[in-house]
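Lay summary

Proteins are chains of building blocks that fold into shapes. Our project writes down both the chain and a compact code for its shape. Here are two examples, one after the other.
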Amino acid sequence: MPNACSICTHPERAAIDSALVAGEPNRRIAPRYGVTETALRRHAANHLPASLVQAQQAAEVVRADSLLAQALDLQARAQGILNKTEADGNYRAACSAIREARGLLELQARLLGELDERPQVNVLVLPEWQAIRGALVAALAPYPEARQAVAGVLAEVEHGRAGA
């Protein structure tokens, strides 16, 4: 018969579950409650109530919605200020309002996941790709039809027409 989970039977299980759901590191939780990190991992994987995890996720969605709502409100206010300063001919203040509106648009795009700031690398211009391409075409020299077909496909890939 398997042993009972030491976390499930712990007198402070609710606090342990809350700490786990909040993403607190096991190495901090374990000494506080006198349990092992292994027991915490096992409990989180097998016994952590799904409702707690869903509640945490729902709270994060509410926070994100609130941030977005605040950003939208600020955007509307900045737009109002921009309209008023332009109408008044106060172009210095209008430029400031434009800068603020731009920053708020950027924030909204980040909150909505519409702004991809990950670096992108074009591997087609890397010397390593050029060397591989040359070696591949050279290796196909004894097979002129295959060489021509591969060179054609490589040219399509390099011009963004792969699979077209």
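And here is the second example, written the same way.
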Amino acid sequence: MIRKLLPLLLGLLGLGLGIGAGMFLRPAPPEPTEEEIAMAEEAAAEAEPEVPPEYVKLNNQFIVPVVEEGKVVSMVIMSLSLEVETGTTEATFQHEPKLRDVFLQVLFDHANSGGFRGSFTDSSNLVFLRKALIEAARSVMGKGVKDVLISDITRQDS
């Protein structure tokens, strides 16, 4: 019986010694390159949870006349809000007069180019208006403005 177990025990002992020697004599992992370190730091920065934005509703509505042939044919009334970085709400309210000024200029230009005629709430029509409003807001507030939200829009025809 020992003759049958001895080869098995010697095989297991050899296997165990081989695994132990392989683990002990394994070479050290290579040092990471600067590029690998930079990529790891970038991945860690991206993995950090994103801070949710704040929403700032501008106090008063915007009233825009739609003029055709020198006569006011309708009025567009809009409410706007800004999506801003966290912590910039107070600064947004401090810049509100300038924001209102640039927003009104964009809205008047949009009205004069026919943007509020016909199906003015069509999404393709509002894309240009949204882009212009975001650019105007960023000209005042910088990259802290993430988006301009049109919360209400109405047209009253005369």
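What can we say about the second shape? DSSP finds five helices and four strands in the chain.
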